[in-house]
Amino acid sequence: MTDTIFALATAPGRAAVAVLRLSGPDALTALRALSGSPPKPRRATVRRLRDSDGTVLDQALVLWFPGPDSYTGEDCAELSLHGGAAVIDGVTRALIAEGLRLAQPGEFTRRAFENGKLDLGQAEAVADLVEAETTRQARQALEQLGGALSRRHEDWRSRMVEVLVRLEAAVDFPDEDLPPEVVAEAGAKVEQLRAEVDEALARAQSGLRVRDGYRVAIIGAPNAGKSSLFNALSDHDGAIVTSTPGTTRDIIETHLTVAGYRVILADTAGLRTGRDEIEVEGIRRARAWADDADLRLWVIDRAASDGGWRASTPLVRVGDIGVFNKMDLAESGDGAEARSFCAINGLETIDIAVNLDRGAKVLDGLQARVVDASGGAEFPAATRARHVTQLTLARADLSRALSNLPQPELAAEDVRLAARALERITGRVGVEDVLDGLFATFCIGK
Description:
- By secondary structure, the protein is an alpha/beta fold.
- The protein has 16 helices and twelve strands.
- It folds into three domains: 99 residues, Gyrase A, domain 2 (2-Layer Sandwich); 118 residues, Four Helix Bundle (Hemerythrin (Met), subunit A); 164 residues, 3-Layer(aba) Sandwich (Rossmann fold).
- Helices cover 48% and strands 16% of the residues.
């Protein structure tokens, strides 16, 4: 039998209300010790809480949730206390005296998972919902908590079971008069499943971007206006702006909310041949961050004539945005050459004077890219890298099954492996190595 845990479910510090959660076999005993007779299940009731000496600790709102109809599947209770430190400390001491212990991070949700109240995908969604900073992150987490991810994978798994029935029939009853199309039908179903997993993997980055953020690097030559654009887009002076080349030596990041999506914006060191060891390292980091970004905003001084824009060309990719700054000045030959480079290499171009328009046109362009890359009406089949890994394994197993159809016993094993890969996403099998790492990321009390 598990022990009984408790934790503060609200943030620490001075507040009007603090909520303590209890879960475990002795929750009712502790509730009786502090409040007398427990309230009716799921009915909020005001009770005076007392310690073992009869000293009144607080007048609280008490809720009682008998298992298994509770968040964790165990007997649970919630105490809504006045939020003063003295009240919280007094009730905490009283609960410890009753034999309860403080919960570890994520222990309530872990118990919910272990008691079958949530699958692993839903447990991950709880963590994502607590950490959500934008409306899109919250919406994705809520859909996953509601079972959208699990239903999609369970549909694939159940269809794989149907395939296994056909393949194993061909293996177990080779002398029976089974219709010759049995294996062919199984192959068609496997091919359809693989196509759906392929499509899911192609869209996997959208779910990851919603959760983790869309990464945007501002790159370009020194003094092109990168830091000014960074400050304009982030609406605060996070980056130092001077006329001295090489002022930005390290990556400066900020988080934006663009059309409800989380965007990680980075100002990087000006790309040129470094003048000293510190600048060389800053440029190395700039290249690494830009190479890993979802989008690069390539800032070009359209009036410059020093050829500095060329140092950035190895980093830009099709679909990036060339931001031609200082449109209030005449465009130089270098500016025209950079514009031609953008046209040839598939970059969108935007002309701005960042000190005048504060990057409004760039923000509009950025919004369109973020929505296109992160949006989609259908719920994604992956919201974490772990999901992508298992879907990739399932896809490989299905491909191997198609190759092995002439030997149904081998094809059946391949389909069985694909189904197990999906089961690892929802936590049906083989997730012990995932659990400790996942729940350690939770806040205490959840």
